[in-house]
Amino acid sequence: MDNAPRPSTFSGARCQPADEWPALDRNLWTRAQQKPGLLDEPRPAADWAPLTQEAVAKAYGRWLHWLMANGMLDPSAPPERRLTLERIKDYVRELQACNAPNTVHMRLLHLGRMLEVIAPGSRPAWFPRVLRTLRASHQPVRDDRTRLLPVRDLLALGWRLTEQAEQRADWSLRRRALHHRDGLLILFLCAHALRANSLARLKISDHLQRRGDGWWIALGRTEIKNRRPIELPLPDAFNGALERHLAHWRPILLARQRIYGTATPVDSMHFWLSESGGALRPKDFNWIVNSVTRRELGRALNPHLFRKLVPTELAIRDPAHVAIARSLLGHVSYETTDQAYNLACALDSARRVHATLGALRREAKDSATSLRKEVR
């Protein structure tokens, strides 16, 4: 009985925090993130965006938790010695039992990234093959083609919400201010489709800047997920709604801090404010956009879908210049943008088929009408 395998206590959602890691792993990870001095060797993870560091650390924490739950975590062993093909096979099987395929792939991808920075050159030769297999077997849980809407419909929604805020005198000021904020947010996403984390960072003057007659979004490399700075103008057509929000509707939301008695008032320069006058968090944007599009259009879109929608529309309407979507979205590789192009081809084909079927139905209806007239 002493040699019987221990039952696993692995939880697919449990990520061991860094302060619970073995001292060896914790020290290696701390060193990998440290900013080097002027004459020091570059540190491999020092230039990663905070979100990337967090994602990689969580994936590694999940691996350590699995090892510990199965009685295989030797705190004194170097990280690379704990990684064997048999262990990875078992780890993947347990992850697959409680996670979506893409999540499993990302866990392994980030585990490999962690090994590269805490034990450079130690990643086994078989590891990339495992990643390729997981990626090839990954099928999206949801088909984005069934969720996207034409940009013109979303632009119309944004303008409609801002107009309702101005016109509905029977609504409370709070409701009207939130309506105006939501409409302006939809317009922003149609124009540049920023990530939720970037939207949450926007501050007046720092990131939302008046330049001449127009407004620009400017985010530095340390404020962007892939460290590619953003400097993009907003459409001139947005000027009126943007300035109206700054002058009238946003102050109404900001004043609600006093109503809710916020202990630590938010920086008054944050552009996007909540109902209680605080700064919106990244997850708040997902909730707002999902709620608004479901309520108004009958189909829920999250902010990240706008990042697929913009290049998709560009590929359909101006395929010769689809490559510019890479710069608009800040993609490091065109491969990511190209995925949107492929999606556009499918959508465009479907729309053409539907248009053809509609034309055929109209022709059949017209022919039937003509025939009835001739019979009479």
Descriptive notes:
There is one protein chain. This protein is mostly helical. It has 2 domains: 18-137, DNA polymerase, domain 1 (Orthogonal Bundle); 147-301, hpI Integrase, Chain A (Orthogonal Bundle). The chain has 14 helices and 3 strands. The protein has helices spanning 23-33, 50-69, 85-96, 101-118, 127-137, 151-167, 173-192, 196-201, 239-254, 256-260, 282-297, 303-317, 325-329, 334-375; strands at 208-211, 214-219, 230-233. A 3-stranded antiparallel beta sheet has the order 1-2-3, with no helix packed on it. Helix 7 (173-192) packs across helix 9 (239-254). The longest helix is centred in the C-terminal third of the chain and has 42 residues, at 334-375. Residues 1-7, 321-326 and 330-334 have low confidence and may be disordered.
